Amino acid sequence: MNYFAEIGKDNELIIIVDSSNCIVYKSNVKPISKFMNLYNENQFDDEYTIYTYQAGTALAVLSRMMKIEKINTVKLSKPGKVLLDSYSVKYEFNEIIDFVKSSSNPNKICGIEKKLIELDDLDKQIEHLVSVGKKTIYQCSIR
Question: Are the CB atoms for 91 and 71 separated by under 8 Å?
Fold first, then answer.
């Protein structure tokens, strides 16, 4: 199945599939914070491919927390690209953007992306990303 073609249909913002090509997660709202909630409650020990509308530092940091084979995204942030390259994570994108945008105000940077860039330390970034799953204030992917 072409999951990348599904991004944007029915407002899907993220789809995560396992090595058997089965969907383990998809969301059309708060894709990272909702996934981190799921991540905090479950074990993800397979290899995963991610299809998403926007990718940035959050998915790059997530690649240090679980095995991500590849990220396929419509838009990739410059800081996310730098990290993905440094972590040797495979990715494909259609457009490079300065930062992942906030869904509540597309003129602002996503709160998660901004905080992870400010932290600039992998352990602190991971700690913050895990804490995001316990909150509901973040919403970062827009169409």
Answer: yes
Q: Kindly state the helix (H) or strand (E) to which residue 32 belongs, with its residue range.
A: helix 31-41
CB contact set of 53 (below 8 Å; sequence gap of 6+): 7, 8, 13, 14, 73, 74, 75, 141, 142, 143
pLDDT digits (tens, 9 = 90+) for 59-108: 999 999 999 999 999 999 999 999 999 999 999 999 999 999 986 678 99
CB of 25 closer than 8 Å to CB of 38: yes
Name residue 49's beta-bridge partners: 17, 70
Q: Tell me which residue has tokens 């992942």.
A: 100
From the list 130, 102, 105, 126, the residue with the least C-alpha distance to 114 is: 102
Quote the pTM value.
0.88
Sign of CA dihedral 48, 60, 123, 135: negative
Tokens of 126: 């991971």
CATH numbers and ranges of domains, the chain: 3-132 (3.40.140.30)
Burial environment of residue 119 by CB neighbours within 10 A (0 to 12, 13 to 18, 19 or more): middle
